[in-house]
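Table S2 (continued). Query chain:
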Amino acid sequence: MRFGRKVGVAVLGLAALMSLGAAQSAIAADGVTVFAAASLKNALDAVNEVCAAEVGGKATISYAGSSTLAKQIEQGAPADVFMSANLDWMTYLADRGLIREGTEVQLLGNSIVLIAPVDSTTDIEITQGFDLSGVLGDGRLAMANVDAVPAGKYGKAALETLGVWSAVESKVAQADNVRAALALVSSGEATLGIVYKTDAAADKNVKVIGTFPEDTHPPIVYPVALVAESENAGAAKFLSCLQTSKAKALFEEQGFTVLAK
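Corresponding output:
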């Protein structure tokens, strides 16, 4: 029964994706289409509003895990701009000739944090060998997919560096993207979660109980670039606007570090 339900959901998801692809194809001829990591949503929605005048209208933004978006672009999805939550997926597309040479910008930085529901009394210090498994008890640790999604990969790397991954691996509830992991904690379905600092700041139903030291995981870098197949003149204008002082202020307001000068 559960298997049948999963198949039904998968079919509905595929239908929705096909519908989204058709809608994006219709829009791409006029407006800029941006594929962006889910963790960028609040900040990028705000930036999109202020950049509309320079670009010639608001961009259509599709948010998902960077891995999902990169695979969609590889399969021919009509994106003009790609914003990844790590360098790996940008490199993945660049190596396949799918990113326009000379347009990549390392735009933003972030950090990963341990979160709990806002009413949780959990208190823990993130140190080498800390007892995360004990704190979780029978609960679950929400993370984005640890093999593909940047937030999940950063989180797993941090837990491995701290020597606690093997103790909690069986308790991890993996989600398709970091915002889905955030939702598991926000709704109380997961006891704790690992998300970006900016995600935690965007949800009043969670609180940060610890920040992972920067030296426990690879540097968190968000690159942005034009997709090689894009013929939309507004895409370059959008890319330029992302690097303006007004965009910088909005990114910083959401907790991002702006790397591009």
